[in-house]
Hints:
- By secondary structure, the chain is mainly α.
- It has helices at residues 12-16, 18-35, 39-67, 89-109, 113-116, 122-141, 145-164, 171-200, 205-215, 219-235, 245-251, 254-280, 285-311, 316-336, 340-366, 382-385, 387-401, 407-421, 425-451, 465-483, 486-498, and strands at 70-73, 84-87.
- A two-stranded antiparallel ribbon has the order 1-2.
Amino acid sequence: MNAFIDFYAAPPGLTAHAAPLLVIGPLIAACAAALSPSTRSAWMISVGGTIFAFWMALCLAGEVARNGVVNYYMGGFAPPLGIAFRIDALGVMFALLISGIGVMAALFSGHTLEAEIMKGKRRLYQSGFLLCVAGLLGLSATGDAFNAFVFLEVSSIGTYALIGVGVDRRALPAAFNYLVMGTIGATFFVIGVGFLYAATGTLNMADMSGRLATLGDSRVVEAGFAFIVIGLGLKAAMFPLHGWLPAAYAYAPSLMGVFLSATATKAALYLMARFLFTVFGPHLDFVGLFLTWVMAPVAGAAAIICSAQAIFQTDIRRILAFSSVAQVGYIMLGVSMASAEGVSAGLFHLFNQALIKSALFMALGGLAFNIKATKLSDFSGVGRTAPWTMTAFAIGTFSLAGVPLTAGFLSKWRLIEAAFAAHWLWAVGVIAVSSLLGLIYAGRMLETIFFRAPVSEERAGEARFGVLVPLWILAAASVWYGLDASLPVDLSTAAAQALGLAPAGAAP
Length: 508
């Protein structure tokens, strides 16, 4: 976090209110986009709203680097009477990630929506996108358990609609399936929060944690924990609760593929980590048992089984979707170690995967004008006719497979180091086997794209310049963080420490 100290000298008044402005900015932009007179003005509002949110995230990052935690009390009422925003290093990491990807997705959207969304719906589509951004940013900033549910649903409501309005008819049943599973997950989560409120009498997460520490063995608390974990597991597409994800990613319009693959499941994982380590804590017996005997085996199964499933897919977006579930397995594996090294490695991998997946879906979306289908065979030889677009796609694929000199390799290496430190040799084997499987499906995609004859020389042209700019920013970031990962490593290390996890050898 030291990288953010004095990085940006924001006006004192602005910094003092950066926490609520982080959410209010995109919300106002969402209303303005819906009321804007044209598609172009809606796009400009979308870009401006996400840039403003990223600016506020940078302001908060500087404040957290200086002071450790930023507390903002709504109306000046401190909890438990009032509602608070509480941003620590973990919240800052996710605020930077969500707003940064939001900027890239907004830039990308101005050049792709006309290929996938009917003209009359494009302004509302930008509005819904900004609503998703605001909800996820609120989730990263809130210190209140019930408001976490509210922000989670604010983002989800926009997402359900945005997945279903694309030109692909399969998007509608995919959106409905996502709606059903997401509603079940949200219901489980809010029931769990209700159990915790019944046991503690508060909804503030910091207050709740302090009161849970004095309760001892409580069936009400254990029931609340079970409901919260299952609900967030559904939202995060945690294996085997991931059934909604492949279709949602495969058939959604490109903007949603870019943004959701990088942020939606990651935000649910953020909230799960927040509850596991901040609200409950691994010192509680049932939390420790869950991490060791449920989350860790499920994570290992996800990494191997979903990587194997990706090999046999014929739709290129479904390959990436199953790969996403496998990568969630890697992240869960790091979190389940319940050590600073393991959680830091898992968060580092999460950060890298957000960059990688958004770049991969962006490359595919950039060709939506020319390639209407999503079968892998339809991309035969596209690397020859769209070299800039597909070279960026290849860089993302290399990072996804964990090829050296990419960010994906470094985060997998840190996971292996954490597994050795925890004496989890089986986890090292899981990472090795799933990485080999990842090389196979990555190789399938690259072989089809670069080494087969083009289906049509006329159809597969280069993506537009406005798509290539954010695409290459993300691709270059994957390479840069493969050579110098100091920024994401510092962020993930500070985030793990914010969860109360001290590095090995640290003084008690």
